[in-house]
Each structure stands twice: as C-alpha cells, then as structure tokens.
Amino acid sequence: MSDHKNECPVPKGKLMIIGGAEEKKDFAGPDAHQDVLKEFVRMCGDSPRIEIITTAGGEAIEETYQEYASCFKKLGAEFTGHIHHTSRLEVNNEMAFRLNNANGVFFTGGDQLKLTSLYGGTPMMTALKILYIHNDILIGGTSAGAMAMSTPMIYAGSGETEMIAGEIKITTGFEFMKDVCIDTHFVHRGRFVRMAQVIATNPACIGIGIEENTAIVITSGKNARVVGCGVVIIADGEKSHGSNIAAFDEHKKITIRDLKVSILSHGETFEIPERNPSHI
User: Fold this and answer.
1) Do residues 92 and 61 lie in contact, with contact meaning Cβ atoms separated by under 8 Å?
2) How far apart are the C-alpha atoms of 276 and 273, rounded to whole Å?
3) Rounded to whole angstroms, how far apart are CA atoms 210 and 119?
4) Which of 3, 113, 147, 151 is the most buried (most CB within 10 A)?
5) CATH code matching the domain that covers 14-22+32-270, chosen among 3.40.50.880, 3.40.50.1000, 1.10.287.600, 3.40.30.10
6) Cis bond leading into 9, ω under 30°?
7) What is the pLDDT of residues 116-162, one digit of tens each?
8) pTM beyond 0.70
C-alpha cells in the first residue's frame, strides 16, 4: 500500500473539554496551578474577549452567564458576551461576526442534544469550525458543552439502563473530535459502563471520561494534556472482542472483553489515535 499523506488541515485552534463542576471562585488554594478556568483564560491570551454560550441550559440562564462572566473577568478577560438561543430561527449571521472577534468561546452545561439540534448545520457552527481550523481560538465546554464536542455523542442512558446492551443513545456531535466519545462527571457518576457500550458499537472510537473539576486541552487536533484536580480515563477498544452489543434486542447486560484502560492525572499527556483516514 502506498504511503498517502494526510492532506486535511491541522487545526490551529485549541479545545478545552471539561468534566463539569469546575471551580469558579477560589483560585488561591494549594492546587491553584490546577485550576481549569484559570487555564482557559490564560490560553485565550492577554485581556481576551470570550463569548459564553448558555444554550444547553434550562433555567437560570442569566445567572449562569453572570457566574461565568464574573469568573472570567476576575481571571483577566477584557470582555464577555452572552449567546443564548431557543430556536434555530434565532441563529443569524451576527453570530458568525461575534465569534470571529472572540479569542475564546465557552459552552456551558445542560443538555447536549439542545446544542446539536439547534446549531448543527447552521452558519454559526460552520463559522466556528472554520475559526478552529484556521485561527488561534480556544473553544471550551463543560459537562453537556463538553460532550457535544465529540462524535459519537451520548445523549441518554444512565443508571441500570447503561448496563443493557444497546440502551445507550448516541448521535453525531459537533465533530471537533471524530471517533472520540466524551463523557463527563465520569468518576462521580459512575459512567464507565455506558462509555464501554459506545466503544462496543464501533471499536475504532476511543472513549475519554473526564472527572469533575478536570479537563483535557487538545492542540493540533490530537495532542492532549490533562488539567485539574481529578482524573481522565481513556478506554480503547481496538483489541477488544467478545462483545454482545449486536444482540441488543435480547435485553441482555453488556459484555465486552479486553478493553485497554488508562487513568491519567494533572500534567499527563496522550495522543488521540487516527485510525480512520481523513476524507471529505
């Protein structure tokens, strides 16, 4: 087989994918060097402009915006803008202009399916992806805002349901990361089994489970670094076997053998595998 060079562009932008419940007030404790939001603002550059997108949220939208705005300004942001939509019809061309003038974009938590159903295929999302590829912008998300970054994206399934083969619901996320499934609040809410289910459906994907107050920073589209007080768990199914995921109609508990699992903490690095050749 000939050696084909990957001609797809290497993103100039960066991602910060946060496991939720990140510290927003105390940035002077013994682990201050591990503060996730402090790192987010630092990576945005000097006196940055940050757009905060609260669309995933349900109630207390203004309070959510004000909490993050106060935190970012305390950490050195010059400007924070608020973007919130409840309908695709509201997503107009002004959004692309605003994003183009931002150093950082931050998706708050809530419901990831709101994000993908409202923004998928819009000029705003296209503009954000173009910025990510060609500009030195930082795109961050926490909880649901983090889960929407990847493809496949989990949007339902927890508790006892997550043990039943085929009961985890997945769809296409924003695809800033492909063949990667992100799950959040990972240790705190015991979500390893549902992540394993996603990998069983297509072992070319890897699963990245991020604990609360913890994040991964992605540069060049594939180089990852762990930031924060918790751990990141990586599940790789490349050499897995024995899965019963295809028997989902039999209502059996999930089985999958020989998953490769790594647990990483603050400062550790890893590379996201590229198993599928990039193509249009």
Assistant:
1) no
2) 9
3) 24
4) 147
5) 3.40.50.880
6) no
7) 999 999 999 999 999 999 999 999 999 999 999 999 999 999 888 89
8) yes
